[in-house]
Structure formats: C-alpha cells, structure tokens
C-alpha cells in the first residue's frame, strides 16, 4: 500500500483550517494545518505535501507570495487557492505560476474535493 497523500492547509482563519482539515481527513488523506505561509516555510523542504490548499488573503505573507517563494526555491506541488476576495488579476497570476484551482469562499465541499482529487491525479488545471 502506498503512502497516504499529505495535504497542507494554509489559512489564517482557525475555523476554515479546522473544517478543511476535517474534510481532507474524511477523504482518507493526511492533513497538516498551518496558520500562515511563514509557518509553512519553517518546515523542512524534503517533506513537501502532495497538494496545498491555501488562502490568498493572509497577514504577513499572502498565498500568492507563498507560491512565489515556493516556485523560486524549486518546490513545486499543486496549490488550490481559496479567497473571500476573488480578483481576476490575482487569479491570472497564481494560475500562470502553476496553481491548480482558484476558488471563492465559501466553496462547496464537492468543489474542493473535485479540485483536490484532480490535483492529486495530475489532471489539468482549472
């Protein structure tokens, strides 16, 4: 049996982190929650997740700034962005940099699951 996929959840809202962690675990994946991009970057690079679900609007470091740092350091894995403040400019920037999905908040569990399963399967971005 293969290793259980690890999903990193990066969101400054504790309620969102808790609900996403529960959703991810209900699908049989391992969830690691972080309250900021800075918190995530403290983790050793050798243990990258199979996928990340990240908020865009966070204090200290935005989701797209986190993505830029990861890409610049050669750390590439699918990222699903979620935001309560969707912006076409940000959507285009993160998708061009390799994001897998860009979802508004709130998003349905089904929508998040679809993006997550496509990302883990290596399907095309949305």
TrEMBL record:
A single GO BP: phosphorelay signal transduction system
Cross-referenced SMART domains: REC
Gene3D superfamilies referenced in this protein's UniProt entry, alphabetically: 3.40.50.2300
Matching InterPro entries: Bact_response_regulator (IPR050595), CheY-like_superfamily (IPR011006), Sig_transdc_resp-reg_receiver (IPR001789)
SUPFAM superfamilies: CheY-like
Keyword annotations from UniProtKB, A to Z: Phosphoprotein
Positions of post-translational 4-aspartylphosphate modification: 55
Pfam family, one: Response_reg
Domain of life where this protein originates: Bacteria
PROSITE patterns assigned: RESPONSE_REGULATORY (PS50110)
The protein's name in its UniProt record: Response regulator receiver domain-containing protein
Domain Response regulatory: 6-120
């Amino acid at each position: 049996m293969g290793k259980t996929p690890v999903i990193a959840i990066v969101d400054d809202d504790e309620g969102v982190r808790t609900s996403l962690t529960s959703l991810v675990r209900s699908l049989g994946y391992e969830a690691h929650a972080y309250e900021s991009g800075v918190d995530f970057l403290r983790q050793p690079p050798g243990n990258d997740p199979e996928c990340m679900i990240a908020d865009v609007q966070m204090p200290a470091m935005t989701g797209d700034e986190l993505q830029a740092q990861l890409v610049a350091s050669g750390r590439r894995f699918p990222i699903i962005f979620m935001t309560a403040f969707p912006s076409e400019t940000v959507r285009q920037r993160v998708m061009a940099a390799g994001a897998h999905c860009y979802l508004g908040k709130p998003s349905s569990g089904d929508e998040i699951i679809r993006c997550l399963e496509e990302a883990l399967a290596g399907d095309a971005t949305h």
